[in-house]
DNA sequence: ACAACTTGCATCACCAATGTTGCAAGTAGT
DNA sequence: ACTACTTGCAACATTGGTGATGCAAGTTGT
């Protein structure tokens, strides 16, 4: 029920599927209106092959979304957000999520259709994050008067901003992986302390 | 040179143009792939009328972008970012920009084509903002070690987040204008102080 | 009132993208 | 080696959106 795949694919076909998904991500990230032709070209396969694996364009995008969302969920889970000390988990999760989001920016931004499997997973992730932010507040990391949901939203916005910048700036120059740990540190520093000096007040 | 309009339009035509621009904004904001037909319907005119005013779909979107960018520039200018005390200007600009961005979310997010008039205006606005953030730092509002460009980017991200939320949440329930001043206050508070408590540190 | 302008409607041509099929050549797994 | 699977290629049908045109009815401004 996870995918339209009925029976297991042969090894080469499986590889092709992943190649297509990755090529689609790259291509659609640059141009959301890219054609199946362009995606196929980017994957180095014929257009008919793409259609053999994904009946319609919509099916392809759904599959991308599902794939990306699963990876995101994994990234968060790996940080053990319910059991680790919350601030540690926040760091871990941030670095992990940045890694995923940098490669799957398009797929993560496609508004997930209602009733989708992706939507379920996504909501689970959001719940998990909200819970983490409540834990952060209980631990005194967040100020008491701050709405943890607002804090989580600011956090998302910062992640989005960092990814946005990275995918336009450094992707072209070097293929070297950006230092997600350093980015996570800067991000969380900004999230918690802001950019203002303690002296000047409103 | 501002638009493809050669000679002045009659009053009713002028009104039609603005009606179309607004309808296009609303429609494309909900669904970026909306057809000219849908846009025309939303504007309460025939599709041919839209094509009479905007030769191609691209021309329409360009016009929207230009229109929105001009309003944005106006919103920033009205805050007198070079002459007012920087923190005052920041408040003023934020409230103004929120008002504009809430109505023109789609048009502001369309990546402006190179060489566009919109791009020129947009760059001017960015320069203006960067300068404001340098003034903020000189005034001691921003911490000395913070990169003012990073601060500006965080600021943009927060604005985007606030607009995102508003356009999905409250637009459906009430037509009442959201309190942009209160939003600006919350936004700037978060920007400067973050969400963390002063005690807990990294 | 009159001329100029604008709009809706019906209709058309056009095209680019989508999705399908059959077949031949190549590859995976046993 | 043999079978089943996968892929590329070529060709095709379909369709939904785009853009254009001519005309009749209505509106604006003077």
UniProtKB/TrEMBL annotation, chains A, B:
Cross-referenced InterPro entries: Homeodomain-like_sf (IPR009057), HTH-type_TetR-like_transc_reg (IPR050109), HTH_TetR (IPR001647), Tet_transcr_reg_TetR-rel_C_sf (IPR036271)
Organism per entry: Kribbella caucasensis
Pfam families according to UniProt: TetR_N (PF00440)
Gene3D superfamilies assigned to the protein according to its UniProt record, in alphabetical order: Tetracycline Repressor, domain 2 (1.10.357.10)
Name this polypeptide is given: TetR family transcriptional regulator
Domain HTH tetR-type: 14-72
Keywords: DNA-binding, Transcription, Transcription regulation
GO molecular function: DNA-binding transcription factor activity; transcription cis-regulatory region binding
Keyword check for Disulfide bond: no
Ranges in a coiled coil: none
Domain of life: Bacteria
DNA-binding region(s), residue ranges: 35-54
